[in-house]
Amino acid sequence: MKQAATTIMLLLFAAMTSLLAVAQEKPKTLAKPTLYIFSAQWCAPCQRMHKEALGDHEVMVMLQHMDHRLVDMDLTKDGKLLYNKHARSGGVPELVLYDGEGKLIARQAGYETVEGMVKFMRQAFSAEELENIAREKALRKLRYVDFEDNE
Fold first, then answer.
1. Is 137 or 129 the better-scoring residue by pLDDT?
2. Residue 73 sits in a domain of what CATH number?
3. DSSP helix, strand, coil percent of the chain (3-state; round to 5)
4. Is 3 a member of any domain?
5. Residue 96, domain extent
């Protein structure tokens, strides 16, 4: 009887230790990719890129699936500090893209068309995520068309 009680106690201790170890593990969360867009108000290519690329449906949907920061070199507090930390071209506009773990994916210096911006941003997503983004883009476009038709 004493031996059975000792065996049960050891089994309970082992089970509790195992549960405690699982509970103490950090949860594996998938962080969003991060996009820095460095620009300036005086920069004509920057303003053109804002107007064209950042107004595109697919770009807007992808931005919703990532952390993004528009850094105006003259207006953003710590803009120059952020630029020195992330950018490398020495000019604007510049795009800097990180994965969810903070690992650099790519940098792009200079004006970027809508197609170029989409191609650049797609690097941050898996095939499954890109399929979801495409569906979301299609739904958003339908809602936009419906809204335009009802006015």
1. 129
2. 3.40.30.10
3. 55, 15, 30
4. no
5. 34-150
User: Is residue 13 over pLDDT 80?
Assistant: no
Token pair recorded at residue 130 = 């890109």
Residue 131 domain-assigned (yes or no): yes
How many angstroms separate the Cα of 61 from the Cα of each of 4, 21, 53, 56, 115? 62, 39, 12, 9, 14
- On whether residue 119 sits in a domain, the answer given is yes
95/22: higher pLDDT: 95
Question: What letter does residue 36 receive in the DSSP assignment?
Answer: E
Please give the tally of structural domains in the chain: 1
- Residue 49 located in a structural domain: yes
Least Cα distance to 98 among 32, 143, 49, 39 occurs for 32
Please give the model's pTM, rounded to 2 decimal places: 0.74
Helix axes 114-122, 57-64, angle to 10 degrees: 30
Q: Which amino acid is at 145?
A: V
